[in-house]
């Protein structure tokens, strides 16, 4: 399932952990068609720029029309496309289409127009996200009157339903107009809250666990050369300075404790590295500051330690039966 992450680093407990050293390769990105949903701001916008700088063409989908147009314009000006006058003109370096990731038709239109313009899609990334911190669903101060009003579903709709829509549509578009052995991938955005408890953002956290679960549920099926032949991975950023940053009191305390803070570029560089590394499937990169760590490999490798030898063996046997009977 998971391939190369290097090097293995010995921790104090003697357990090796896998630091991921991203390599953003022009050879891997040049002339690629990359669709980024959520590319108008923050980590997504930085990733759009890294891709364009390295010769890729990017279709940006985002609900923020003004910023999306601005990012596309900047890329077109900064990294112009040169066409051979003897050949048909090449498409623009970047295009923007206003897209609401919670609206299936809107996501479908983005893929259809991108495919029409660029004739294929190589990589799809979903960075669109939402974190509502006001009116928490499980506030202990809620009373019998408050719960009569239905709470906001935005964090579930944007983070989880949107990711499900994009992944479903991508799984079909990525299979079209590809030569033999051509790498195609989907990169989803989870969070440290996708694998660790984080207070105050329960609905966001449930959604990000959902993104993580979606990747796990698809990684073997999608990567099969007899089925989709698509890699799927996740990025789990931690504290990252973007428009979507944490409240000031958390940032201040974070800095005081000397904890790592990522920039949008740090996380985008890890994301581009995962996109470029065609050996990575089913991996999740926890990003802390400028560094990234792969987590899925150790969860599998150490199962007999955290679950116990005997239940791990029984679980493996049962999962094998499920795999063989459900896939048959
Ligand atoms: N910033 C952090 O500290 C942090 C930490 C962990 C995980 N993440 C995750 O990383 C991803 C990127 O985060 P960011 O900090 O760059 O966020 P951001 O707010 O800067 O950018 C998110 C983008 O998503 C777009 N978006 C929101 N709702 C949308 C919708 N309905 N349809 C289409 N686009 C929509 C926004 O317009 C924006 O351009 C998110 O999934 C976020 O949950 C961020």
From TrEMBL:
Record has Metal-binding as a keyword: no
Protein name, per record: 3-hydroxyacyl-CoA dehydrogenase
Protein family (similarity comment): Belongs to the short-chain dehydrogenases/reductases (SDR) family.
InterPro entries: NAD(P)-bd_dom_sf, SDR_fam
GO cellular component, one term: cytoplasm
Organism, as annotated: Aspergillus calidoustus
Keyword Cell inner membrane: no
A Gene Ontology molecular function term of the record: oxidoreductase activity, acting on the CH-OH group of donors, NAD or NADP as acceptor
Keywords, ordered alphabetically: Oxidoreductase
């Amino acid at each position: 399932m998971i391939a190369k992450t290097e090097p293995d680093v010995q921790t104090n407990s003697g357990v090796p952990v896998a630091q991921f050293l991203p390599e953003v390769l022009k050879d891997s990105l040049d002339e690629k068609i990359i669709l980024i949903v959520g590319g108008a701001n923050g980590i997504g916008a930085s990733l759009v720029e890294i891709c364009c700088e390295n010769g890729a063409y990017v279709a940006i989908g985002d609900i923020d029309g003004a910023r999306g147009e601005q990012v596309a314009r900047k890329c077109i000006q900064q990294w112009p496309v040169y066409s051979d006058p003897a050949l048909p003109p090449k498409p623009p370096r970047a295009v923007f289409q206003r897209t609401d990731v919670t609206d299936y038709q809107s996501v479908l239109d983005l893929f259809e127009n991108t495919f029409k313009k660029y004739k294929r899609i190589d990589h799809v990334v979903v960075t669109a996200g939402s974190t509502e911190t006001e009116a928490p669903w499980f506030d202990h101060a809620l009373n019998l009157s408050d719960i009569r009003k239905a709470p906001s579903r935005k964090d579930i709709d944007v983070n989880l339903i949107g990711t499900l829509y994009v992944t479903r549509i991508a799984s079909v578009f990525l299979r079209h107009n590809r030569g033999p052995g051509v790498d195609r991938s989907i990169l989803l955005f989870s969070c440290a809250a996708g694998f660790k408890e984080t207070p105050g953002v329960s609905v966001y956290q449930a959604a990000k666990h959902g993104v993580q679960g979606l990747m796990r549920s698809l990684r073997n099926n999608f990567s099969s050369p007899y089925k989709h032949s698509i890699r799927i991975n996740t990025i789990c950023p931690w504290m990252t300075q973007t428009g979507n940053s944490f409240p000031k009191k958390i940032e201040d305390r974070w800095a005081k404790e000397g904890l790592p803070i990522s920039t949008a570029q740090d996380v985008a560089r890890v994301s581009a590295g995962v996109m470029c590394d065609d050996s990575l499937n089913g991996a999740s990169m926890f990003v802390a500051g400028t560094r990234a760590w792969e987590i899925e490999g150790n969860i599998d490798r150490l199962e007999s330690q955290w679950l116990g030898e005997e239940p791990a063996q029984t679980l493996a046997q049962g999962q094998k039966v499920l795999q063989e009977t459900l896939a048959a």
